[in-house]
Task: structure prediction
Amino acid sequence: MQKSPPLPEWIKPVFRKRPYLEYLAPRLRRLGVATVCESARCPNLGECFSQGEATFLLMGEVCTRDCRFCAVQTGKPAPLDEDEPRRVALATKELGLKHVVLTCVTRDDLADGGAAHFAAAISAMRKLAPWASVEVLAPDFRGDCDAVKTVVQAAPEIFAHNMETVSRLYPQVRPQADWERSLEVLRCAKKCRPSLLIKSGLMLGLGETREEILDALGQLRRVGTDFLTLGQYLQPTQNHLPVVKYLPPEAYRELAAEAKEMGFREVLAGPLVRSSYHAGEMARLEEHREPV
Ligand code: SF4
Result:
């Protein structure tokens, strides 16, 4: 059991859950779809839903990996539910969502890591909710570029893969992942379709130095990353890694300014920023939109 220092003044999230609980949760249950918002206990849960945005968790709630910052259950996942893509598109239609992020637990048990399932969900979205923009927050597919191509060729508006932390901390924070392999996923997606918007994100406060953060951002730019999110790591439970440091809001503002200097087209940085936070806003920045 490892306790984090007490939350600072600037991290007192207001959990506006009521509209979500009363209006949305029963519908999502009835439609048989899951959201990462619930599994990861996201502090922005109510705000995103009230803006017509949701992050759907595909392929079950059991992950084949055990990242030390993540509240998702680890174990042997259930077989894929082939009807799930249709149900997620139906939920998007029924809830009138404008921007949908499709993500998943890591399914190292599947030959393509779930790439075809993502592609099926995107095409179902195009049929049932053509107005909605789609962002895929993908796993690393064990570095399989063909799996990345399968998702990219289904033409989401945004392809995202989070680096999560700096390379030095990978062994402690995400032991089954690899820094170079994750970079390769982003590089492969951009190479596959250069006009595709590529996005990544880092959690801060796990012991990384400012130099390591800036070096990580430089590497992300070099593989063609367009959008960036920087947010504060928050300990889900005392069985997870403790917070080493709470960065103040001004630290995020400074990093955001340096990231823009490096050429990132959009940067969302702040203590409560998460990779899907205001994702729709980023997608709607017309000047970035390329014809699909
Ligand atoms: S791979 Fe993703 S879902 Fe699985 S434990 Fe790590 S962060 Fe959580």
